[in-house]
Structures are given as C-alpha cells and as structure tokens.
Design a protein that fits this description.
Helices cover 37% and strands 18% of the residues. By secondary structure, the protein is α+β, with helices and mostly antiparallel strands. The longest helix is centred in the first third of the chain and has 28 residues, at 63-90.
C-alpha cells in the first residue's frame, strides 16, 4: 500500500520516462546501423536544382508502439491526478464515483459543461484550475493537454501514429565557380512517403558545363506525422517537445499533490506564491482507507489421506513454465496440455 495515491502518478511518469529512453535508443540504433537517409541534387534546367532527401531504410517498426506507450502513460498519469485528488478531498480510498473520474481535456466549452459531473468531488478551486487549462480557453494548437489527448486518442482508438523523419537542421553549402551567384528557396522538412524536396537552389549565370558541388549539412530527427501537422509544435525539435510535455505533467502532479498534502516530491516545480495560497486554504481531512472485506468461510470440507511426497512439495513445477517448453517436476506425469507441451519428464 502506498503512502499516498499521488505516488502512483509518479510511478506512471517514471514508466513514461522508460519508454522515452527506449525511443531515443531505437532512433540512435537506427542511425548507427548505416545511412538511413540519402541526398541528391537534381538539375531541372537553367541552373535550377532541387536538393532532395529520401529514406533508404525503413524506420524500425517498434518506434510507433513505443511512442504510443509513452503517450498512454502520460494520459493515464493525468487521470490518476484526479483520482488521487478526489481521494484526498473526500477522505475516502477509493474515492466515490471513481468510475466517472477523469482528467478533463476538451476542445469546446459545451463538452466541459456536459462532463462537469465527473469533477463534483473536487474542491471549487480545483475545478477553476482545470477550467483555465482547457484547450478551448487557450490556443488549442499550442495547448499541452490538447497535444497529449489528440495523439493519445489516435494511438488508443484508431491506429499507430505515423513515424517519419523531419529535417530539423538545414544548412546546405554549395560550391560554385567564381562569378556565380547562389539563391536558396526552402521547401519541405517533413518526409512524406519517405522523401522530401528540402531546397530549390538556383545558380546564375549558368552554362551547361558549370560544375558545382553540394554538402547538404542536414540533421534529421524522428517525427510523428500527426504531431507535425501542428504549426506550433513542428517548430520545436522532437526531443525538446517530449521534455516539455514531460515537465508539464510532472508539474501537474506537483500542483495537486501539494495542494492536497502540503508536500510534494517535486515542490521545486511550484512557485512560492502558489504554495502559500495552498497553505492558506488548508488541507482536506486525512484519507480513511476502506477496511478489508470480512472473510467468508466455506462449508467444512473433510481432508483426505495422501502421500508424504506431496507434503514435501514433490509433483509441483520446479521452474517457471513458458509456452512450448516442458515442465520439469520430481514426480511422473502422464498428462499433456495442448498448449503448454509435454509435462512428462
């Protein structure tokens, strides 16, 4: 039993961190395995060239599921916050109406009003804080809650998110003969179907015997197509976004944990003014845990005579069983299970 229901929020956040580390490892291994992206310069005529990047090796299939697990744990963590806060406010563990509790994330005010009953066990200032955080009360595209919820819904209810590459750094250098001028026009950064035309380069004056060389000097980050559709988020590097989202969720846990308990393992994320306001409001009464259910005894059953080897534990599996492997035991077994293989020695 944990000391506080908020402990499970931190546990979920730590689990999300593990998936975040796995994403980094998957991407780094992908880059270290060879040259998964290549570049070409295509001359379209009259000195106009297109610098194109394409994917030569598919992104590992494990990236999207791992990203989905990261999202799942963050979204679950937010719901845990509401459950924990309600437990403190009501003084009951588990809190009443726990099946209706969820962290509200709504794009329209009507959805907030229709679901307000889910927050009835919170204190008034909790509902006010949650209302201010809603995507419909801010720039919905830049709202942290909205980003988590939209991506998590795609992964949870529709399909895996679409993983691709994004040209995060783009500083090409062109070597041209003396007297030539170079102009750049920037194009696509997101790879769609494995390729993107990242730049249009014009050399003038141009003759058919003009010799040029290009160094793309580009860095490619992982990207999720559904996230790249955001004007706000695609300007921020993928790893930075993940850190920002993670910091936001950690701060949300600390906000409600301190308000309900007067302490938090990450109170350093909170302002002194906020903590003073919480202290002035006071805390709910301590949680009273529900007593364990009383034991319901069965009717008496008479014992039967058996062999000593059973008393000594013989005849039980001595090692964990796994599919399609034999079970080893110290007694002879003549039975087989159709899914678990031969159980005889």
């Amino acid at each position: 039993m944990t000391d506080s229901p908020f402990d499970t929020c931190w546990d979920r956040l730590e689990r999300a961190d593990e998936h975040g580390s796995s994403l980094v490892a998957i991407w780094n291994d992908y880059l270290d395995d060879g040259v998964p992206f290549d570049f070409s310069l295509l001359h379209e005529g009259e000195g106009v060239h297109f610098l194109r990047v394409w994917q030569t090796t598919p992104i590992p299939s494990g990236f999207s599921p791992e990203f989905g697990e990261w999202l799942y744990n963050l979204r679950a963590c937010l719901d845990y916050i509401i459950w924990a806060a309600c437990a403190h406010v009501t003084g009951q563990m588990p809190p009443p109406d726990e099946g209706t509790l969820q962290y509200p994330i709504y794009e329209h005010p009507s959805a907030w009003g229709n679901n307000l009953y889910r927050l009835k066990h919170l204190r008034d200032h909790h509902r006010e804080m949650l209302l201010r955080m809603q995507p419909f009360n801010s720039d919905a595209d830049a709202n942290y809650l909205g980003a988590i919820n939209r991506l998590a819904r795609v992964d949870r209810h529709r399909r895996l998110t679409i993983t691709t590459g994004y040209i995060a750094e783009m500083e090409p250098i062109v070597e041209v003969p003396n007297g030539c001028n170079v102009t750049f026009q920037w194009g696509q950064r997101l790879l769609v179907d494995g390729e993107a035309e990242m730049a249009r380069i014009t050399i003038s004056p141009w003759t058919d015997d003009t010799m040029i060389r290009v160094n793309p000097r580009s860095g490619i980050d992982p990207e999720v197509s559904e996230w790249a559709a955001s004007d706000f988020w695609r300007r921020i590097r993928f790893t930075t976004r993940m850190k920002m989202i993670r910091a936001f969720v950690a701060a949300e846990i600390a906000v409600y944990e301190y308000d309900c308990r007067g302490t938090s393992r990450r109170s350093d994320l909170l302002s002194r003014g906020y903590m003073d306001a919480c202290d002035e409001r006071g805390r709910p009464a301590p949680i009273k845990r529900k007593p364990p259910p009383s034991v319901e005894w069965s009717a008496p059953v008479a014992s039967r005579q058996t062999m000593r080897d059973r008393l000594e534990g013989q005849g039980l599996p001595s090692v964990p069983a796994s599919p399609n492997q034999n079970w080893h035991s110290s007694a002879k077994h003549e039975d087989r299970h159709p899914e678990w293989g031969d159980r005889r020695e």
